[in-house]
Amino acid sequence: MAFPLSSAIISYKHSLNVSITPSFPKPSFLPTQFVFCSNQMPTKDPARPARPRIHCLSKKTLSEIAVDEKDSILASLPTNLKEKGSTLYASLIDGKGGLQALLESIKDKDPDKVSVGLASSLDTVAEIELLQAPGLSFLLPKQYLNYPRLTGRGIVEFTIEKGDGSTFSPEAGGELRKTATIQVVVDGYSAPLTAGNFVKLVIDGAYDGAKLNCTDQAVLSDSGLDKNGYNVPLEIMPSGQFEPLYRTTLNVQDGELPVLPLSVYGAVAMAHSEVSEEYSSPYQFFFYLYDKRNAGLGGLSFDEGQFSVFGYTIVGKDILPQIKTGDVIRSAKLVEGQDRLILPNES
């Protein structure tokens, strides 16, 4: 993977005590490994073994990384992107803004040239990383590459009907409605596995005809025990991090907050698996009916950081409080984002 190389670029510069502040042209593409030391949270995921909170980068030299990692970097690219990846790698090593030029600038201790060269090299590394996982700014753990994943955003539209034959309240100036529409934006950038599994289920028609159940805090789909979803691990992107944590919750009391908060009316999340809270349900999702009157300090839900949130209601928030137990999802369809869905056999 390209990550060790990006780490070495900064570590090597740092070891020579060149005092500069690098400028990153594409900060949203840069994973946590791009900083000298980063706060890391422990995780139960074997792919993310528990680590100290302060994790410093390896001091392996830049030239060693460049030589040793070339084959593994190029091998990690999809077949149709290997040619482009090879061109980028050649540019990274010997190009005008590549590593050789950066090394010369570092040895000359020229802060201005180092700053420009560092940004250029990291930019190229970021492009290679995006080829490794198209659409995402981070690499998924290897054991999760056999899951569907959504590499961007999508929109799902639900048509809801009353189970008892009654109607929904009319829109302004309109008539009573036998059915109502709810649209949800699904965020694969922050929860690619959870969003990917959900979108695949929608495309497969798994939610068509599903009954809904209501509590004071949520509208839930049925458990779907007869449906074939994936056992996706709990997936939460912490604020300030560049990749999700898997199979671990956040400690809100310690200031750990998710990029996709639950504490929003109409937030959409997966229920927990009946087997383990380290996994989400393969099928059951819920609309969260956030109420600040029932929230904790700072207005955060007591369940914040405990569920895989993957989207938000953008149309039909007024419908959510009208839904009662027994109402039905007549249909669920993906209206935008199918081109961003990657299925296992397409990886």
Summarize the structure.
The protein is an alpha+beta fold. Helices cover about 25% and strands about 20% of the residues.
- The CATH architecture of the largest domain would be Beta Barrel
**Count of DSSP helices?**
7
Strand order of the largest sheet: 6-7-11-10-12-5-4-13
Q: How large, in whole angstroms, is the Cα Rg?
A: 23 Å
What is the total number of structural domains?
2
In CATH, what is the class of the largest domain?
Mainly Beta
Global geometry: elongated
Strand segment tally: 14
Following the backbone from N to C, one meets helices and strands in this order, namely HEEHHHHHEEEHEEEEEEEEE
Mean pLDDT comes to 80
Helical residue percent?
10-25%
Structural class: alpha+beta
Through-space gap between termini:
16 Å
> In the CATH hierarchy, what is the superfamily of the largest domain?
Cyclophilin-like
As for the CATH topology of the largest domain, it is Cyclophilin
Organism: Quercus rubra
Keywords: Thylakoid
Protein name: PPIase cyclophilin-type domain-containing protein
InterPro entries: Cyclophilin-like_dom_sf (IPR029000), Cyclophilin-type_PPIase_dom (IPR002130), CYP37-like (IPR044259), PsbQ-like_dom_sf (IPR023222)
How would you portray this structure in words?
This protein is an alpha+beta fold. The chain folds into two domains: 3-132, no CATH class; 143-346, Cyclophilin-like (Cyclophilin, Beta Barrel), CATH 2.40.100.10. Helices cover 24% and strands 20% of the residues. It is built from seven helices and 14 strands. The chain has helices at 3-15, 62-68, 70-75, 82-94, 99-107, 111-132, 192-203; strands at residues 37-39, 54-56, 149-150, 153-161, 179-187, 212-214, 218-221, 235-236, 245-246, 267-272, 280-288, 308-315, 328-336, 341-342. The strands form four sheets. Strands 6-7-11-10-12-5-4-13 form an eight-stranded antiparallel β-sheet, covered by helices on one side. It has a two-stranded antiparallel sheet with strand order 1-2. A two-stranded antiparallel sheet has the order 3-14. The longest helix has 22 residues, at 111-132. The protein is elongated and about 75 Å long. The two termini are 16 Å apart. The model is unreliable at 13-60 (pLDDT under 50).
